[in-house]
Sequence to fold (136 residues):
Amino acid sequence: MRKADDWCKINDMLGKVLILLHECNTTEKYIAADETLRSQAMFPMLREKDIERDCASFIIMNMPDELLEVQDAVIDENKLIVRTRTDKFTEVTDERYELAMESKANIVSTDYPPRTDNTADSYVVSFNGKTVRKVK
Fold:
């Protein structure tokens, strides 16, 4: 899909589930089971260093400022889907949110964990005025 720039259209994906395997210590074992991923149930999320790998489709770039520097190569030229974050655990800033929104990331998420010792308990991530996650 990636090399042919033949990604599914959003309308074709409505009502369907896409499962991503977040990079972890078993990712390489998962890929080794079938490097084409044709028989696998999940897309592995890899890092920028992996953009040339045939199995690369989804890339994690948690630092939106770093993504801004390479987004044309990663997204436009290599046809990868990229996920970045609006925050970094308890580091919540408007600047980081703006950088994430300015990037060409296909997936912008929050990794802000709901915790009882949360000092910013009213933090809200919104896209075009619609709240997508609220931590209480």
